[in-house]
Amino acid sequence: MARESEKEELKRKDIAHVLHGQVVPSVFHKSGCTFYESAHGVRVVDMDGKEYLDGMCAGACANIGYGRAEIAEVAKEQMIKLQHYPNYGYLANIPEIELCAKLAEIAPAKIERFMTQNSGSDAVEAAVKAARFYWGEKGKRDKHKIISLDKSYHGTTAGAISVTGDPFWLHPNLAPFASGFLHVKALPYCYRCLWGKSYPDCNFECAQTLEEAIEKEGEDTVAAFLSEPMWLGVGVHVAPPGYWQKITEICQRHNVLIIIDEVITGFGRNGEFWCSDIYDIKPDILAFSKGLAAAYMPMAGVGITDEIYKGITAHDAMFPQVHTFSGHAVGCAVALKTIEITLKEKLAENAAEMGKYILERLAPLKKESPYVGDVRGLGMATGVELVANKDTKEPLSAEKTAEVVSRCYEKGVIVVAFGDNILRWGLPLIATKKDIDIILDTVEWAIKGIQV
Ligand code: PLP
Q1: Nearest Cα to 120, choosing from 60, 78, 183?
Q2: Do 46 and 37 meet the contact criterion of CB atoms below 8 Å apart?
Q3: Are 316 and 379 within one domain?
Q4: One domain for residues 228 and 248
Q5: Reduced to 3 states, what is the DSSP secondary structure of residue 343?
């Protein structure tokens, strides 16, 4: 079949048979989707053979890059040996045990026991369940509420969407959402401080909202505070120094557990293996996913400290958390190899170095461009906040921001827009300065072309 008609046929099948999330149906029915056919290194290739530098990184997953034959070999070997045997009841498979032991070596703080999951949403839900079960076994079933940020994304399964605070996802048709979840305005959004304060003289008013919520609800009803360590599910937001210390003090003061969602940030993206380590956060429970198997397999996991494990097993109760594919043998084998590559090739260190370079290069753009209000990032997760007016900080419109994204796309660079006006790009962690220069040159060029 000629290439053009092959493409048309795929588009027809896609429009006829695929249920896509996050598309406007009329736009989808008219234009269909973009298909990528192959990839290598930091680039994806469309059906016309055009290559794109992938600042979307397969949804912030493809940390070790595309086309790694050694991963395919590990997967093939494990598939032939034993594709999977479940991990519930008294069952286990070897790759799962090896992976959990490896994770215990590298995990932040005192996290040392793991159960792998199928998605980041599952991991978040398992984390919530571990927190509630812990308090339940302590005889405190009322201590079940989970507090997260009003600007947050933690997934879309029925439980995880109730943790998610961003109203974009909370469509009324999905109501009622699960009970026992609260959202507070504790995001340290210093560029647009809700209290009109400036860091560091702000006394962390944002963090204070967490304490106010705990006190209002009563600490005997609050199980945990759940948050990303830096916020990538809703764009790019970086915690200022001291923020996490304040949050930790509040949680400790009120006997509230800390659940950290490292679904995006884990596995080197921010310049350390875990973003929690950058801020010296000591999670009681950790959720993680994307970089674990770098999109070669759908993998995720939840980790707990010994203290949490002792709590949930104190009365010999069975922890009711299973998935058929938890501890998937091929997924675990692939994850082990991915971690080995991440460590051997020092990808977190590369992310740190490239991140510094990106911020240095963006500093003049922030000064000179009338449309760049703020530049933020940590490691290989950076972005800019676009404004129509720098003095008033009026956000650039969603249409104009989309124009920047599509100008980049035409030039072969994929960047992502969040909200109306935040642009983010996060390449695979193997990216070089040359790749960064291409992405930044293109973003700068695309922003310069805006007419407001
Ligand atoms: N948590 C965060 C911070 C995320 O960014 C995401 C997904 O992007 C999730 C949880 C949910 O992960 P998944 O899409 O694998 O369910």
Answers
A1: 60
A2: yes
A3: no
A4: yes
A5: helix
In a domain, 11, yes or no: no
**Nearest CA among 104, 332, 129 for reference residue 226:** 129
12 occurs within a structural domain: no
Same domain, 284 and 358: no
| Strand locations in 41-102 (E) | 43-46, 51-54
CA of 124 to the centre of ligand 1 (A): 8
Q: Summarize pLDDT for 412-423 with one digit per residue, the tens.
A: 999 999 988 999
**Residue 18: other Cβ atoms inside 10 A:** 11
The total number of structural domains that make up the chain: 2
Q: Could you tell me if 392 and 335 lie in one domain? A: no
Q: Measured in angstroms, how far is the CA atom of residue 76 from the centroid of ligand 1?
A: 27
In this structure, the answer to whether residues 210 and 319 fall within a common structural domain is: yes
Domain CATH number, residue 158: 3.40.640.10
CATH of the domain at 389: 3.90.1150.10
pLDDT digits (tens, 9 = 90+) for 53-108: 999 999 999 999 999 999 999 999 999 999 999 999 999 999 999 999 999 999 99
| Domain membership of residue 389 as a residue range | 34-64+346-448
Which residues line ligand 1 at a C-beta cut-off of 6 Å?
119-121, 124, 153-155, 228, 233, 261, 263-264, 289
Q: How many CA atoms lie within 13 A of 271 on its CB side?
A: 16
**pLDDT for the residue 1:** 54
pLDDT of 365-413, one tens digit each? 999 999 999 999 999 999 999 999 999 999 999 999 999 999 999 999 9
Please report how the helices 329-344 and 69-81 are oriented relative to each other, as an axis angle in degrees rounded to 10: 150
Domain end residue (candidates: 311, 344, 377)? 344
Q: Give the residue, out of 163, 232, 264, with the most ligand 1 atoms within 8 A of its beta carbon, to mutate for a pocket test.
A: 264
**Given ligand 1 and candidates 56, 63, 116, 121, which is best to mutate, with the most ligand atoms within 8 Å of its CB?**
121
Question: 170 C-alpha vs ligand 1 centroid, how far in Å?
Answer: 15
State how far Cα 224 lies from the chain centre. Answer: 19
Output the CA 196–ligand 1 centroid distance in Å. 31
For residues 250 and 194, membership in a common domain is answered with yes
Residue 4 within a domain? no
